[in-house]
Amino acid sequence: MSSPSVVRSITPARLARAQRRASRLRWTGVLAIVAGTHFIAAQWFERHHGTFKPVSPEHVPVQVALLKPERIETQAAGSPPPAKAAPAAPARPAHAPRKHVLTATRSGLKPHETAPATEPASEPASEPASAPEEASAASVASPASGATGSNANPNATGQGHAQNTAPGVKFSVPPSGNLQYDTFYNGVRNQPGTIHWSSDGRSYDVIVSVPLPFVGTFSYASRGHVDAFGLAPDQYIEKRGRRGEDVTTFHRDTKEIGFTRTPTTLPLQDGAQDRFSMVMQLASLVRGDPGAYQPGVTRQFYVTDNDSGEIWPIETIGDESVRTDQGIIDARHFMRLPRREGDRRRIDVWLAPSLGWLPARLVQTEPNGTQIELVWRGKIAPPDATGNDASSDDASPGPSQPSVTDPGAGPEKP
């Protein structure tokens, strides 16, 4: 048995050596863990780096046109909807999807230039089968135009319709449906997101849901109606994760925009949009006249957030291919240009004609480089219980093709 004097003479030295040895072992373990973590991360990035495809800062085409908010062409009061005159218009392929058409003329053309007649107006139809077309043409013709029953030929339909419309830009609301999207946060795939879009041509409802790791689901809802400038939001609701809702209200009666996040109010401008109604407004404009949006063409939108508003210049980049799990989709790329010097936040949208010009891909790039991306992954769900898609030819014409008779027409604001 050791004596107390021997223990006292040996313990301090051994204890110091043991402490140094333990410290070296701890640091060695920490370094090994760090090195192992970096190795695993490097291996993961090597295998998945193709998933993260940031939008390349390609050269933006030279701007060739700047389009500001304009009135859409609307059907005059008392005139039948444009759909009634469709059978007398130039034949369209039977398989082509029917649009929610709200316009029928190109911006800048005089009404009589929209459907030039190719036959004498007084030439009667020679076949009894054309009687329904004659009745349709006669019902569209305006008394002020001097049209009579002898004008019963297919081309008279276009003339009558043009004389009962107010000229403006083409505008065609996309078909209703639910779209699913693969979501990526800095290239890492997360749970699927959704865009719910519903419109009967008079009102609309869009809800965007994007789940994000650790912070919860980001949801954005915009509800409103259709007026003389297209989509007219009544209320925009934004909820980010566990935070409370921020509500933006468009007061049409007082011509003001109010916020719950700030007591500040803004004047309500014609054609004003929120962050997500802007995407659907753009889709409706492009769907109405795809040929008008060539590379370099820029359209301005006044867009409100949850506490402010500003002009967004949206430029047409060009037609591109979007790679999805369902295959390659042809789409047209639009990009928000910098709003001010030093603006590094960026929004890119790809609208696909095969989806009724609804988004096939959306990418938001933050100033710090963080990217949130949505890529289409599923078909548009049937908008009604019968399973008929709103874009099918045999769908009920109902309220999907209404005439807009009053710039302020639409539901009262919530």
From TrEMBL:
Residues 85-94, 114-150, 389-403 have a biased composition (Low complexity). InterPro entries: DUF3108. The chain crosses the membrane at residues 25-45. Residues 151-166 have a biased composition (Polar residues). Residues 75-173, 379-414 are annotated as: Disordered. Keywords: Membrane, Transmembrane, Transmembrane helix. Pfam families: DUF3108. This is DUF3108 domain-containing protein. It comes from Paraburkholderia azotifigens. The lineage of its organism: Bacteria, Pseudomonadati, Pseudomonadota, Betaproteobacteria, Burkholderiales.
